Amino acid sequence: MTASTFLQIAQSLPLDAERIQAMQVAQEFSKKFVELGFKVVPQMLWAIGILLITRFAIDVAGRVTRRTLSRTEATLRKFLVQAAEIVILIVGVVAALNQLGIQTTSVVAVVGAAGLAIGLAWQNTLSHFAAGVMLISLRPFEVGDAIEAADVKGVVDSIGIFSTTVVTDDRIKIIVPNNQLFNGTLKNTTAMGTRRVDLKIDIGDRPIRPTVAELLEIAHSHPLVLENPPPTCLVAEITPDTTILSLRPWCASVAYEQVRSQVQQYVKEAMNADKNQEQ
Length: 279
What we know:
three-stranded antiparallel β-sheet; alpha+beta
């Protein structure tokens, strides 16, 4: 129905001027609404399609990245997969906004301003994130390493973006902020593969040379003590009342606590046996 036809019909009806004007406004509104629908609905469908394609692309990129980096350290692989997925998501959202006619430059400006505000409010969190990136890149320790740092001693269970999880010897899980690990002094006790066990042995007034030979024999007899480098036994201190020897066997890093405990036990039992024989 054209506007002229509508006016002719309206004029033929017993309607007042205000009702005629209202009908004209309603007709114009309906026309604009239909035009807007034909314009907006395809845009929305395209935007939804872009988001669906983005979701599919994220899944594909995640699988491809994991397969490509299958031989990479687990923590670094997880970080790179997440980074790839976030980049694809940002590209997809920007493309969808463009399709809807939203100026992405304005969105970027708003996001930038919000990011600045969030950055000022979350300075510590961002420092933990930066430290996490550095820990993953420099890799001063890996999952499974025994470390001592930030008043925590234990085995690394996982390395996250913001924090690292450490499990202590008594099976307590501790969450340590990455910034404390990266900025503080960190001791990795398993990185070298082997460790020296330093034991101080008080031999009293026993003769030094035969006692040194006996201690070395005890160290060699332990199945977890390494032959190379060989254990050593040196005089650490001599006083008028006693002599202290330093027994130093080597072992694998993971066996340190066991070797330390058992060698001390063997030494104590041997010295007690010698004492009983003398009596």
